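@channel sequence for tomorrow's demo:
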Amino acid sequence: MGKIEDYESKMTQYAEKIIELTREIEILEQNLVANSEATLENMEVKIKQVEALIEELQLSFKSSTTVFQSLHQEITVMVKSLDKVEKTHDKNLVLKTRREYIKIQIELEECERRYQEIFNPNIGSCDHTGITKLSKPIVSHLNAHLGTSHIYGGWGKDSKPIRDRESMYWYSGATSMNLYDIRFYTDYKNLLLRNPFHHHTLSSEWRGLGSNYIVRGNTLYYQNYNPFGLAKYNYTSMRYESRVIPGTSSSFSYANYPHQIFDFASDENGLWVTYATDQSNGKMVLAKINENSFGIEEIWQTSVYKPGINNIFMVCGVLYAVRTVDIKNEEIFYMFDTKTKEEKYVSIIFERFQDKYSNLDYNPTDQKLYMYNGGYYVTYHLWFNHTVKATEEPSFRQTSSEITPI
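structure tokens (generated this afternoon):
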């Protein structure tokens, strides 16, 4: 297990180095003439550092020799390309280097996939008693708009993919809290290349508000603008539906951004939504959604105050609430178990990439957290407590009684 964690740490370091490189390349693309030789030399040093890391990974993890050899070859090509850039400042070579960088990121995704297959074969199982820790933020790319002003939105994978869409990614981002459109990509490679196979713009009367939307079963679930409530758009049937939850208050949003009233979440147990009501005085309410009827199956009242939270996500029927600790870190501080109707306070610290994030969701197909953070695609690996049998009930504190279902 120590070797596994060491491998994961090194993979995270590799991802961080790649992000540094892409920033340098983006700056170079914007103004080739103004870049000094020192800047180019610095880029070459960073690439060589990544090259050294790949060599280290080859030695420490021999079972992935083929993949890492491929990565090593791609890094070598990048070094040669940058050598030419130093001499010519040729924009075409810079673009070629960018394409090679994208190839390396795709190889990284393949490494992560193989890592999951080898070390986490129980994806989809809830045979654990909760999260124990998170990896460092793994930053994939700047959003499809290539704009850091597009801070509102979300990205990820379908949490219950339909046939032949298992590798599909989605993204939606904007400079405001309004949800206008969404892009779908066949796989990770096309996400990085900003090459969607479908780009759908919502009709004006169906547009949403807020950033806490998800895609499940080829369906977009989001907060409706008018009437204020829940909405869904199925991309298989191209059908729109909405519903209003009586008593829901628009006065209680998350701490990070306004208009985050409804927050959709998905896990191994299904589809969920959280909100607050005037009756609950701002304390979070959790509801289970029937995906076929789009009705509410069951509702639970929690004791956590929604405006003190940055975001929530669900794992195996347990709600996890997140808040800010300091300028760099977040904390999972609260858990609510829908099976036992009990809650407890915990402290699981994890690092942010940028100051604020507008979307945080768990995906049960790969057991990762997907964060939209300052316009960047960010993921986290999760570790679970498998040392205690999941059949043993955790010693949570009992909360108030359930609300009558709608």
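heads up for whoever presents: Helices lie at 2-30, 37-60, 65-88, 91-119, 188-192.
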